[in-house]
Amino acid sequence: NRRNPKYLGLTLLIPPLIFFSVSAFRHITTDCLNVYIGQYQPAEFVYDFYYNDPVASNDLGAISFCADESRIIDLAGLANQEVLDRKRIHNWTPASADSLSERMNANVAILHHSWSDAEVEPYWYRIATWQMPGDSVSFYSIDKRYIEKLQTNMHAFERKLPPGVTVHYYPPID
Fold first, then answer.
1. What backbone torsions phi and psi does residue 171 show, to the nearest 5 degrees?
2. CA-CA distance, 7 to 69, in Å (whole number)?
3. Please, which of 39, 47, 58, 141 could form a disulfide with 76 given CB 3.0 to 4.6 Å?
4. What b/e readout covers 138-168, taking b as 16+ CB neighbours within 10 angstroms?
5. Side-chain-facing half-sphere of 161: CA atoms under 13 Å
6. What span, in angstroms and rounded, lies between the C-alpha atoms of 166 and 129?
7. What pTM was estimated for this model as a whole?
8. pLDDT digit string (tens) for 37-84?
9. Which residues of 128-137 are buried (b: 16+ CB within 10 A; e: fewer)?
């Protein structure tokens, strides 16, 4: 009366799968809400106000689906070889991000702080930050001439944000 070894392996594999599945389902509501707020809301903002304009971002996610694909400037190095090469040799700086954004004619940047390095935070004009559980997203005007337009758009979009998102506006730049 021998036992089949493939059934023994399957029997050993099933309990951990059940455990990890139950564990994952506990977080599904929170994770879905975080994606909706952190990914979809910035993408909708771009769609509403900057669909045809170049926008720099360090998180391509949903934003790539809600704007003309060629208009999104990748600051993370996921779709841009120049950025990736500079990051590999630890030469990605605020000046690099600024230079790339200017070459691509971007006037707005959206940075997810969970994806950015503090030492390479650009020296653009921070207009507002959306604070949400587990992350924050900041909106920058790359060029001083576009500060007022971005401020106006941020205030207009704020009513669309779901509960739980705290918006912090920064003082105007003189």
1. -60, 150
2. 49
3. 58
4. bbbbbeeebbeebbebbeebeeebeeebeee
5. 23
6. 8
7. 0.78
8. 777 889 999 999 998 899 999 888 788 776 666 688 888 888 889 999
9. bbbebeebbb
Adjacency order of strands within the sheet including 135-141: 72-74, 55-57, 108-112, 135-141, 125-132, 166-169
Amino acid at the residue 80:
N
Q: What is the distance between the alpha carbons of residues 149 and 55, in angstroms, rounded to a whole number? A: 14
Confidence class for position 1, pLDDT limits 50, 70, 90: very low
Burial of 98 (0-12, 13-18, 19+ CB in 10 A): middle
Decide the pairing of beta strands 72-74 and 55-57. parallel
Quote the CA–CA distance of 58 and 76 in Å, as a whole number. Answer: 5
Residue showing tokens 């909706």: 36
HSE-CB at 152 with a 13 A cutoff on CA atoms is 6
Task: Retrieve residue 1's tokens.
Answer: 């009366």
